[in-house]
Each structure stands twice: as structure tokens, then as C-alpha cells.
Specification:
By secondary structure, this protein is of the alpha+beta class. It has helices at 31-37, 60-63, 114-125, 173-192, 215-224, 240-247, 256-263, 270-282, 341-353; strands at 2-4, 7-13, 16-18, 23-25, 45-55, 86-89, 95-98, 102-103, 136-147, 153-156, 163-167, 231-233, 238-239, 287-293, 296-309, 331-337, 366-371, 373-386, 389-399. The strands form five sheets. The chain has a six-stranded antiparallel beta sheet, with no helix packed on it. Strands 5, 6, 7, 8 and 9 form a five-stranded antiparallel beta sheet that branches.
Length: 414
């Protein structure tokens, strides 16, 4: 940041330079670093990690009536600033177990470890013996942005005039967010001398949640759009229509994980690949791709999807490379060119069945070739997945290493 006479003049980023009138510091665990850049640091952040577990809905009826937060025993000295976690029913009717509170040096430590989960469950089993780790459907960690004063910092800058701090926000942050937002908005408008927009509509229409509709409402919706009757995720009862709505929302998700966060599709096993493929076909994923196979350019243009496979099937039923042989020393590469939305549904069915290689309907859309080395290049980072792990970069190289793995097998019997 460029600061002069207690005023932020410029903010330099990896995407260019901004010249702000007001800066709102809501940078979480990095809020003290932002304050330092603005020459307005009067607090420090010490990261505190917490791990949560989400339980299957099947156990909700037996636990929801006994959900609680666990505090130290009456008369026992409180040794930490944490409430100690609890059993909390979520808005989606799962039970959340946790979090714990571990001081850490790394601001971005989101790892989950068995010791944390064991400790949380062990504590709660003293009151609810039926609690079981076997009911966990997912778990995750987050990092609290705790200050040494253990208090929120919601105020104007002390020395720098055009900065507002919303820092040190810990576990009650979601509860406090509306009030914090109102204070920050009021101060910012005063600094900018900006009048309130009377025509502003603060209500944002959300994605339809079919699982909460009555039979009559759901039936009417399906008659209007059959996609709402096609259930993609049975566990969470998420329809294809809800996923499409999320994809075409005002702030669209750009990854499959983004869709999961928007509509709660479980995304386990085949459902993840189905949603990912649906995302590719319906979202604007077509972008410039250059595909080079064994040193020769096979494609240079707009492409939708590239599959590099050593086996013929993935995702629990997508026959992406139906002719692949795992022991032939070659990788099978299948590139799907840009596909219009009108052709998407029909093509998705053909692709799943493995008929896209030889079908006359898709011969102009598919490039299929075997090689030993494939290179994918793009003008901007593209998402690619390796066994479910998603990464982004401009260039991806894949090559096969013949006889690279050694196996231990039982000795032959004489």
C-alpha cells in the first residue's frame, strides 16, 4: 500500500493497482498484516484451529433433543478462551460435533487429524454414550482469527483515516455479521458522503430447495421444469434443476466444490463425476485449449473437456476411454470440442455409455488418439482433476511410464 499523510492512496495487487477512497479490512487471519500495510496496526492475530465433524442425518432424531455446548465443570478453572465445542443441530438438520481449539503457528493450517476428532468425541461421549465416529459423513478444519485481547475489533482506523477494521472475528462471527455489516456500511457511507440508495433491494432470491417443498409445490415445479424431478444426490435430495440454478446464479460457482457448497449435493463417488460433467456441459467452461500428443499438435481451439486415461472407466460408470488397455504402454486421450447447450443433454448420455468414440452423432465433436505423452496448454489456468483432487494451471503434461510399478504377489505353487 502507498500511504501518505495518514491516507491510503494506492493498493498494489497481483491483478493491478487500486486507488481506493475507503479500505475495509476484513482479511481474517491476515487482518493484522493488512493493518500493518496501512500503517494502522494496533492489534495482532494468533491463529487458532478448530476441527468439526458433520454426522449423518439418520442420527439426528436421537441427538437433536440433547444437543448442547460443553463448558468446564462448575467450579473448575477455565484454562482456555474457547467454549469447548458442542453438539449443534445445523440448519440442514445434520448434527455438527465440535470444534476444538488448538493454537497453531500457520495461518492457513486447515489439516484434519485423527487426534482432534478422537478428543472431541471422547469428551461428548461422557454425556451421550451413543455418539459414534461411524456416523461422520465429513469433517473439516477452520482457523479462527483470534486477537491477544480475545475480542472483536470493529472500528475506524486509529492513525490511518480511510480504513475500517472488521478483525478478530471468532466463532460468534456469523451471529454478529449483520450488526457488524451495518456499522461498517454506515461508517463507509459517512466517509464517502454517499446517500442511501432508496431503490436498493437487499433481498436476494435463493436457489429453490425442492426437499422442503410440499408434494403439491414440487409437482407443479416439475411440470414446469422436469429437471427438478431428476434427483442427482439421493442423500441430500438435490435435483438437477437446483444444480443448474446454482450454475446460472448471479455469482456462479466455478468449481464442482462450489456447487457442493451452494446446494449441498453430497458429491460422493459417481455423483461427483455426474455433477462435474453436468457443470462442464452447462457452465461456460469452453475455452482455448492446445493439445499436443507425442510432439504433434492434435487440436488448437475451443474445447470443453479432455480426458487422459489408462483405464476405460472412471467415476463409477463413465466409459470415457472404452478401448483403453491398462497394459498396452499407451494412454488414451479424448478431447471434446465446444458443445452447445442444446446438444449437451444428449451428448452426456452418449459420453457416459462410451459411445462417443464411434457414434456418427459425435464424430465432429470428438478427437480420440493414443500416445505416450500428452500436453494440454491454455491461455488461462484450467481446472484438472487427478483421482478427485482438483488443481488449476495453464499447462499440464502427462506421460506414461511403462513397467514403473513393482508388485509383491504370492509365490506360484509347484
Amino acid at each position: 500500500m502507498d500511504v501518505k499523510n495518514h491516507q491510503i492512496l494506492a493498493v498494489h495487487t497481483n491483478r493491478g493497482t487500486l486507488y481506493p477512497k475507503v479500505v475495509v479490512n476484513a482479511a481474517g487471519v491476515y487482518s493484522d498484516a493488512i493493518a500493518q500495510m496501512a500503517q494502522d496496526q494496533f492489534f495482532s492475530i494468533h491463529p487458532r484451529k478448530g476441527t468439526d465433524s458433520i454426522l449423518d442425518k439418520a442420527v439426528t432424531p436421537s441427538l437433536s433433543q440433547t444437543a448442547m455446548t460443553v463448558y468446564p465443570k462448575l467450579g473448575e478453572e477455565k484454562k482456555t478462551h474457547s467454549k469447548g465445542g458442542g453438539l449443534i443441530p445445523t440448519a440442514d438438520k445434520n448434527i455438527l460435533v465440535g470444534p476444538d481449539a488448538i493454537e497453531i503457528p500457520d495461518r492457513e493450517d486447515y489439516t484434519t487429524v485423527k487426534e482432534s476428532i478422537d478428543a472431541i468425541f471422547s469428551k461428548h461421549k461422557t454425556t451421550i454414550a451413543s455418539l459414534s465416529e461411524r456416523d461422520i459423513i465429513t469433517y473439516f478444519s477452520g482457523t479462527r482469527a483470534a486477537t491477544y485481547e480475545e475480542d472483536f475489533i470493529v472500528q475506524k482506523g486509529k492513525w490511518t483515516k480511510n480504513i475500517l477494521h472488521a478483525a478478530g472475528i471468532q466463532s460468534p462471527g456469523i451471529t454478529a455479521a449483520p450488526a457488524i455489516g451495518e456499522d461498517i456500511a454506515l461508517w463507509a457511507s459517512q466517509m464517502l458522503n454517499a446517500p442511501k440508495k432508496e431503490a436498493f433491494d437487499p433481498i436476494r432470491k435463493g436457489v429453490v430447495k425442492t426437499r422442503f417443498l410440499s408434494d403439491e409445490e414440487r409437482d407443479a415445479l416439475i411440470k414446469k421444469n422436469p429437471a427438478y424431478g431428476h434427483i442427482v444426490c439421493r442423500c441430500e435430495e438435490i435435483s438437477e434443476g437446483e444444480i443448474i440454478d446454482a450454475i446460472h446464479s448471479l455469482i456462479p460457482p466455478t468449481t464442482v466444490d462450489g456447487i457442493k457448497r451452494r446446494v449441498r449435493a453430497g458429491m460422493n463417488g459417481p455423483r461427483a463425476y455426474k455433477a462435474a460433467t453436468l457443470h462442464c456441459f452447462l457452465f461456460k467452461m469452453n475455452q482455448p485449449l492446445k493439445l499436443t500428443l507425442d510432439g504433434k499438435v492434435a487440436f488448437d481451439g475451443k474445447g470443453l473437456l479432455v480426458v487422459i486415461a489408462n483405464g476405460f472407466c472412471y467415476g463409477g460408470g463413465y466409459y470415457c476411454a472404452p478401448k483403453a488397455k491398462i497394459d498396452d504402454g499407451l494412454i488414451d486421450v479424448c478431447l471434446i470440442k465446444k458443445v452447445g447447450k442444446l446438444k449437451a443433454a444428449g451428448f452426456m448420455k452418449i459420453f457416459r455409455q462410451g459411445r462417443h468414440i464411434d457414434s456418427p452423432k459425435t464424430k465432429d465433436l470428438v478427437i480420440f488418439q493414443r500416445c505416450k505423452k500428452a500436453i494440454i496448454e491454455s491461455t488461462k489456468p484450467v481446472a484438472y482433476a487427478i483421482d478427485g483432487e482438483v488443481f488449476r494451471q495453464r499447462k499440464v503434461e502427462v506421460s506414461i511410464l511403462p513397467l514403473a510399478l513393482s508388485f509383491v504377489v504370492p509365490a506360484k505353487k509347484n
